[in-house]
């Protein structure tokens, strides 16, 4: 097998971009419902109510608000995530005293994914901030928290730059890191354990599309069950900072629990769980197959 770290990194980055694109295209409507229900739980009685109200207020396009930044966010995040995942796997091998080509255990892969997510969070936070604000613009305007304005990606970017400067894009970075680092331990751990289960003695690289998608879905479920309340607080911080409120993670967490109860931290969990299987299944299917295709091309070359 040819060994070239630069080529390997480029392949992982490109395959991660393919996975991120597939994830957004399959899961964006559910993500929109999740963010709306997290940020304004009092406005919606449940997923069906949120869907019906969104459609009556904004039309079908309301389900795809924030798709452009979501695509940018997921392509950027997953490109960096999977590129750094390869590097972090090498770091884990070195720490564990393993050979460079040695297979890692499921636990070791989970640790590598957790390390890699810290780097991905740095590119994810700014784009996810814009996405969340676009998704909840209607609710922010109708509740009087902000004045009516243009609902475009560029208008949101200009507003952030005007009010807070470049650092304004990193509102919610600490909560993004609090979500990503432990979350991706469970994400990659759940994915690798599921692949091991389906492989049952065979090589995990030989798995077909259905076991891969199911494993990706299990990984997504594990991630969200582990860190959903943190994601809820992150969405609140990123959206409500649009109206000038600058609350940190601890203060926002205390305010939500004190004023709305602990269940408010799980608002929007249902669309997130529904989205987890198709979106993360598509992510890993696109990642694994595009990576395998590019690796075969590189080997043949």
From TrEMBL:
Pfam families, alphabetized: Mito_carr
GO molecular function: antiporter activity; L-arginine transmembrane transporter activity; L-lysine transmembrane transporter activity; L-ornithine transmembrane transporter activity
InterPro entries: MCP_dom_sf (IPR023395), MCP_transmembrane (IPR018108), Mitochondrial_Carrier (IPR050567)
GO biological process, one term: mitochondrial L-ornithine transmembrane transport
Any one GO cellular component localisation term in the record: mitochondrial inner membrane
Catalytic activity, as annotated: L-citrulline(in) + L-ornithine(out) + H(+)(in) = L-citrulline(out) + L-ornithine(in) + H(+)(out); L-ornithine(out) + L-lysine(in) = L-ornithine(in) + L-lysine(out); L-ornithine(in) + L-arginine(out) = L-ornithine(out) + L-arginine(in); L-ornithine(out) + H(+)(in) = L-ornithine(in) + H(+)(out)
The Solcar repeat ranges on this chain: 7-91, 104-197, 207-293
Lipid bilayer topology: Multi-pass membrane protein
Principal location listed in the UniProt entry: mitochondrion
Name of the protein this chain belongs to: Mitochondrial ornithine transporter 1
The organism's taxonomic lineage, starting at the top: Eukaryota, Metazoa, Chordata, Craniata, Vertebrata
